[in-house]
Amino acid sequence: QVQLVESGGGLVQAGGSLRLSCTLSGRTFSDYAMGWFRQAPGKEREFVAAISWIGGNTYYADSVKGRFTISTDNAKNTEYLQMNSLKPEDTAVYYCAADYRGYGSRRISVYDYWGQGTQVTVSS
Fold this sequence. Notes:
Helix content is about 0%, strand content about 50%. The protein is built from no helices and eleven strands. It has strands spanning about 5, 10-15, 20-25, 30-40, 45-50, 60, 70-75, 80-85, 90-100, 115, 120-124. The strands form two sheets. Strands 2, 4, 5, 6, 9, 10 and 11 form a seven-stranded mixed sheet that branches. Strands 1-3-8-7 form a four-stranded antiparallel sheet, with no helix packed on it.
């Protein structure tokens, strides 16, 4: 059974930091490109960041570039999203996703597996 389990969400003041984690089980982690998406109330799910299967190339939404960093640890089957300088507009449910042998796509439809989401709330 394939599972993606996120953790690390919470409430933080504007300017603060959080680190999200996402662990994949049931599949070989190193076979997957990994991504982070988010969905704010009343809005569509949007791309945040991704890291490619080969080469570890990273991609970011313009809104988070320079503030967020995506990384992976194959030994722990885990991806991370380090979020710094958080803003109230970063408030959303954050989802991790896995794309088999992918290249770090921004497209929701290409991802094979999704986590359940973790809430991030940034207060002003």
